[in-house]
Automatic annotation (TrEMBL):
Species this protein is from: Roseovarius atlanticus
Protein name per UniProt: Activator of Hsp90 ATPase homologue 1/2-like C-terminal domain-containing protein
Family: Belongs to the AHA1 family.
SUPFAM superfamilies, alphabetized: Bet v1-like
Activator of Hsp90 ATPase homologue 1/2-like C-terminal domain location: 12-132
Length: 147
């Protein structure tokens, strides 16, 4: 199975970073890529249970994903399953994501472990997806809202 590990430091406290990655109002600020809207979401990572999101790009293309929050350990980690919904109504294979927050010099470190990805090019696509969109947007969100 494929795996992706991404690590990024932010100039905020671990508690602040954990809030930004779990609280629905904040997740809506950085989830997805620039230019996308989130017309239908249940992105509350503060409790175990189901979640879902639909992103739409400027051309109206819809990208649906869902899963289940498997654990929440404030302010250290949150884990959830992840699957894409395919246009033909089927679901892609399920993978698992863990966000881990640890202290770092000058702030907090976020490590994203995305595991159980199929052994094809999806791991590379997910790595590009996390680093080119959400992590850029999360950094921007935390610069604007450091407290």
């Amino acid at each position: 199975m494929g795996e992706v590990r991404i690590t990024r430091d932010f100039p905020v406290t671990p508690e602040r970073l954990f809030s930004a990655i779990t609280q629905r109002a904040e997740v809506l600020e950085w989830w997805g890529h620039d230019g996308m809207t989130l017309p239908d979401t249940a992105l509350d990572f503060t409790r175990e249970g189901p979640w879902h999101s639909e992103m739409r790009d400027a051309d109206g293309n819809r990208y649906r994903m869902s899963g289940r929050v498997t654990h929440v350990d404030p302010p250290h980690s949150v884990g959830f399953t992840w699957t894409w919904h395919l246009p033909e109504g089927m679901r892609a294979p399920e993978s698992h994501v863990t966000f881990t927050v640890t202290p770092a010099a000058g702030g907090a470190r976020l490590t994203i472990d995305h595991r159980a990805l199929p052994d094809d090019d999806r791991a590379a696509r997910h790595e590009t997806g996390w680093t080119s969109g959400p992590m850029v947007r999360l950094a921007r969100h935390l610069q604007t809202h450091p407290n």
